Structures are given as C-alpha cells and as structure tokens.
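Input.
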Amino acid sequence: MNSKVVQSVTPVLLVGGGEVDDAVLRQALGAAEVVVAADGGAARVLALGRMPDAVYGDMDSLDPAVQAQLDPGVLRAITEQDSTDFDKCLRHIEAPLVFGYGFLGKRLDHQLAAMTVLAKRPDRRCILIGTEDLALICPPDLSLDLQPGTRLSLYPMAPSTGRSEGLRWPIDGLTFTTAGTIGTSNETTGPVRLTMDGPGMMLILPVACLSELLAGLAASPSAWPVRA
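Output.
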C-alpha cells in the first residue's frame, strides 16, 4: 500500500463516513472526475456504484470485505494515529478545490475535528457540505452575490480580524476569538464582500448557497499560503 498524492486540475470529491443524503451524494459522484474516500467512506462510494480513485485512512472503519472490492492501488493506508482520516486525505490531495461530503452532521466531535483540520490546512481550499450547511475557511478576499436576509455565520478558529460589506452587523474593528466575540447568525443586506487578515475564520452558509459560493471562489484566486 502507498500514500502517494492525488493530483487533479479539477475539483476533487472527498467522501467521509458521516451524515450525507445518498441522493445528493449520487448526484455529486456523477459530476466528479476524481473521487477520494476517507476510510469507511469507501463503502458508501462503492455502494453507489463508483470506484474511488484513492482511499486514505488507518482503515479501522473499512471492513476487509469492502477493502477486497477495491481496485489495485486504490487503498492507501496511513497507520499513524496522530491525525484524523480527513486530515490524512486532505494533505494528500492537490487540487484547486475539494468538496467534502460526510464530514458534517451526525457526530459533533467529528465535525469539530474536521473544522480543526480546515484551520490547520487553510492552503487546501475545501468546502464541507452537509444537509443544512456549508463550511470553509474564508479566503483572503471573497465576494458573494447573496440575497438580502441570507444567514451568514463567521466563527473564529483562531483570533481573527477583517472587514465586511453587505452584512447587517459589520465586522470592521472587531477581534474575533473562540472564547470572546464570534460572528454566528449574522445576515446579509445584499451582495457581500469579506476581507480577512488571516486564515483563522470559518465561513458557514446555508447549503442552498453553494452555487453563489462557487462563483465567488472562482473570482477569488487569492489563497492562503502553506503553513510551515
């Protein structure tokens, strides 16, 4: 088994073992050119008729019978226990964007762990997609064409500052910290622009805003640098 990196010039679909609607995932699988699974997520991908291009993890959640169904070279075990399966996957994917299904919902501890990974690897542009919400590390500069009254939450994974346009409660001049000021349950007054001073802010939007988010990201080529 090997842990070579998946490299793609198109977005990669990453599937975990958490909560996800099979109909939504089936549609995502049909549109994805490259599919990666995190450990037990491979069983879900196979059950929907798709062979993943790679499976990363410590394989503690993937039944040996399912492992036997994988094509040669797909299984890429990483046995160290110092990182989550999501982290193992994300650090082995080089792509312009990663869509993460099965990492939000079901278990709060798994959600927190996944968000921590996003904060650790802000240079990897990744959107976690759940049944209700989207979550990602806000890029340095992001404009979103959102309707007035859209729920928009900002949650600091590290001390964060920035500026905003188009929010009911602007963030200018505020310092956000996990145990202090946070920016959840804000709402838009129209199109939004967010400018962040560092890679510590989690942006959370309704899942219905995915197309607007993708358009905003496409127009925002700037990304956070790789952390040492």
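The first helix runs from residue 22 to 31.
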